[in-house]
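Hi team,

Below is the intake form for EamA family transporter from Pseudomonas carassii. Please confirm the fields before the structure is written into the shared record.

FORM ID: S-0412
PROTEIN: EamA family transporter
ORGANISM: Pseudomonas carassii
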Amino acid sequence: MNMSRRDLFAGVLVTVLWGCNFSVIELGLKTLDPYLLTLLRFTFCAVPLVFFIRRPAGVSLAVLAGYGAMFGAGLWWMVNFAMYNGLSPGMSSVFLQFSAFFTIGWSALFLGERINAVHVGGMAFAVAGLLLILLGSEPSTSFGILLVLLAAMAWSLCNLLVKVKRPGQMMAFIIWSSLFSVPVIMLLTVVTQGTAPFASLVQGLAWEALFSIAFQSYVTTLLGYLVWNNLMKKYPATHVAPLSLLVPVSGLLASYLFYEEVLSVAQGLAIGLVLVGIAVFLNAQSLSALVLSRRAPRSRASQGN
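The structure came back. Fields below:
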């Protein structure tokens, strides 16, 4: 089942916006800590819309709570915390795309989608790039990369949940699951930081924080995941996931434009390996078909001789 042009355009647009989102997060982190930034993002995703949009039909509270906890705390709290601890927006956008490996792996394990030798080769490229970056990184950067990889795992589980449960009312699903994100993030904040992060709310929010919260709530989450989750529900993971390759490209470009993030030659090579690995992995079916089509004439020629 090929993706329609309309769906392809929507998917490309969303992934480009997601890449820019990492720089928007960095903007918010200038005046807010990651706990509060994440909490406010999901609070405004849910409130006040939850009072006007009914709970999605056919979706249990357990599914909403599970998705909300993984999406709000497991994915975005983890990314914000990694960036707060020094991981750059560009690097964060690259390593979050390891969710593609995890998503297709879960789909193969639970939904029967096939993984071939080309998939394995692509993974080898990406892992080589990851190891190269880890070897040349400071301990603080390595810790941030680990956090983002955990976030990538959480995102892949969210993708799997959408594919399995296939919620029909996607906007309602995102709004109501965001409501369940709020208490989990609130609990993490109070347990680890006490009430100190909330002091900035009393003092007032800077315009950078307000813009970051609004962009993350309405553009990145409600619009972005409305499109993405509908595509995940409609098409196989191997058709949708390749679009995420655009996230680190736009993420690195936005980080360069807004924060003048400059990569060393070694970092550029390592990220290049990661991107090549992701590209090979996510286009494995097309590459396998191309190899088989080239082998077929040779096989017929050898039989003729």
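SUMMARY LINE: The two ends are 38 Å apart (CA to CA).

Thanks, M.
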